[in-house]
Structure formats: C-alpha cells, structure tokens
What we know:
It is a single chain. This protein is of the alpha/beta class. The chain has a single domain (4-200), classed as 3-Layer(aba) Sandwich (Rossmann fold), CATH 3.40.50.300. The protein is 60% helix and 13% strand. The protein has helices spanning 4-15, 34-45, 52-61, 67-76, 82-96, 110-120, 134-142, 153-176, 189-214, and strands at 22-28, 48-51, 100-104, 126-131, 180-184. A 5-stranded parallel sheet has the order 2-3-1-4-5, with helices on both faces. It starts with a helix and ends with a helix. The relative contact order is 0.17. The model has no long low-confidence stretch (mean pLDDT 91). Uridine-5'-diphosphate binds at residues 30-31, 34-35, 51-53, 56, 73-74, 77-80, 85, 105-106, 108, 150, 159. InterPro entries: Adenylat/UMP-CMP_kin (IPR000850), Adenylat_kinase_CS (IPR033690), P-loop_NTPase (IPR027417), UMP_CMP_kinase (IPR006266). GO terms for molecular function: ATP binding; nucleobase-containing compound kinase activity; phosphotransferase activity, phosphate group as acceptor. It is an enzyme of class 2 (transferase).
Amino acid sequence: MGSATEATKDISENLLGHKKVTVVFVLGGPGSGKGTQCANIVEHYGFTHLSAGDLLRAEIKSGSENGTMIQNMIKEGKIVPSEVTIKLLQTAILESGNDKFLIDGFPRNEENRAAFERVTGIVPEFVLFFDCSEEEMERRLLGRNQGRVDDNIETIKKRFKVFVESSLPVVEHYESLGKVKRIDAAKPIPEVFEDIKVIFSSLASKVMKLVIISS
Ligand SMILES: Nc1ncnc2c1ncn2[C@@H]1O[C@H](COP(=O)(O)OP(=O)(O)O)[C@@H](O)[C@H]1O
Ligand SMILES: O=c1ccn([C@@H]2O[C@H](COP(=O)(O)OP(=O)(O)O)[C@@H](O)[C@H]2O)c(=O)[nH]1
Ligand SMILES: [Mg+2]
C-alpha cells in the first residue's frame, strides 16, 4: 500500500468488514514496560507501534488547539476524552501503510474501548497484558528520565489509582472473552521479551496456516 488514497481505501474496507487489520492492545500499569517491549516486537514481527501517550504528547508539541487541555490531563494522570485519542490513532493507522498494529496504552477505560470499536470497527486480535507490582513500576517511573511532566511521585500515585479503577476493567472485559495474554513484566527486559516471543511466534504461524488453508 503506497499512497494516502490507497491507505484510505484500505481502512474504509476494514470499516466495512472486508479487509483484515490486525490489532494487539498492549496494556499494563504505568512503568510496566509496554513501550520498551513494543520496540522489540516491532523489530522482530513487523508491527507498527502506536503509543497513545506518545501521540498525545506529539499533539501537545504540534501546537494543536487541544494541546493545553491534553497537557493538563496528562499532568493530573487523567484520561483524555476518547474522541481526541481515537482521532489520533485513526490518522496514524491510515498514514502507516501497515496492516499490523500494536496499540500501546489504549484503551484506558471502558468508554475508550467501546468508542474505539464503534468508530473503527476494529476488535483486537488479543490483549498483551503486562503484570507488574506498583512498587516495581514506581521504581521504574522515577528512574525513567525522559523529562515527562507525569513521572513524579504525586502524579504517579494518581495514575496508579486511575489504572486500577478505570483501566483494569478493560482487561477484565477482554479476560471474559478469553483474549488476554498475561506476561510477568517484573522480570528483566530480555526475559520478558522471551515470553512475548512465544506469543508472537504462535500468532505468526497461525497467520501462515490461514494463508495455506485459503490458497
Ligand atoms: N523489565 C524491565 N525491568 C527493568 N526496567 C524496565 C523493564 N522494562 C522497562 N524498564 C524501564 O522502566 C521504565 C518504564 O518503561 P516503559 O517501557 O516506558 O513503560 P511503560 O510504557 O509501560 O510506561 C523505562 O525507563 C524502561 O527502561
Ligand atoms: O489513551 C490514552 C493514553 C494516554 N493518556 C494520557 O497520557 C498519559 C501517559 O500515558 P502513557 O501511555 O504514555 O504512559 P505510560 O503508561 O507509558 O507510563 C496517561 O496517564 C494519560 O493522562 C490518555 O489520556 N489516553
Ligand atoms: Mg509508555
């Protein structure tokens, strides 16, 4: 897929249910290692990484009219209105030219989840869930050193509360559909990736089987 017009055509076919786009939601608490492992998955399995938080931070930097609102929500650890985040994700999907996406850090609440499915018609292949203690996540966030306005102890506590109250119900929803693949994210980075490889290698062989059966 090359031009923007072709990309638009492809996604509209997906909305009509004709063309399959593979989406994996990568969820887990702040500091659980989602971004770190998404970079590894991209390198080995050809997915496009879409971090909702990164897209929101880029929107602030671009000088968008929503910039101040987004900045304030992030500083407070609050969830930005879903129409803003979904629009950014949709645009990134359309512009990527790829058909396999890791959506990292979204959906963050049930309303995000339902709105994304309604607007895009996309349901995730599965959810990769990073399981990690708050104690370990706090240690990692305080050592992240990326100059983020939300990596301070006050905002971190708020983010943990939002995660438990609003984001975990999304994981539970997908759990009830048998779609959650849980990773022990407390292990060192290379060991976490070894566990992730098992999941993505079996996804790749499943896709190969489908190709063979249908051809
Ligand atoms: N398994 C791990 N063990 C120790 N530190 C990690 C691990 N995974 C990530 N980190 C570090 O923790 C911080 C947060 O990781 P990041 O990938 O940004 O998490 P998230 O996107 O889930 O908030 C980063 O500084 C990263 O280098
Ligand atoms: O779908 C999203 C993703 C992120 N955020 C906001 O962006 C912040 C940082 O999100 P990110 O995923 O970058 O944080 P991480 O979990 O990686 O530490 C969150 O606390 C929210 O305020 C949001 O509102 N909606
Ligand atoms: Mg992240």
